[in-house]
Write a structure and sequence with these properties.
With 131 residues, this protein is mainly alpha-helical. The chain contains 3 helices and no strands. It has a domain of 80 residues. It is rod-shaped and about 165 Å long.
Length: 131
Amino acid sequence: MKNDSTNETSTTTEQAINDVLKVERDAQQQITQCVTESEQILEQARQTARHIGERNNNRITLIHQRCSRKISDDIACMQASSKQLIEDKQTDHFDITAMSEVLDRIALALTTTQADKTGSPQHSHQQKERE
């Protein structure tokens, strides 16, 4: 009977060891599966982060382009306005100078008599009186 009891204990021990080994294998498979799933989740997160980064970079680039275009347009507008102001001032300046010269000639023509034009002494005396 001792043999039967020893056999039974041996069988029970072997079964217990086998059960523990099976549980360890199952646990290892679960760990491997968790690692695989976590790596997949991590890769998806990396892809999402890359996508978000690319979208942000595209948006930033677009904003920079719009700002550069706006600044360029504003500079061009300011340069055109400045150029127009300079041209207007030059035109005004030339008009004033030309008008002044014409008025001086008209005034001289109106104030000069025929005798003055010939250089008579009477002209010199009248001119001195005017001065």
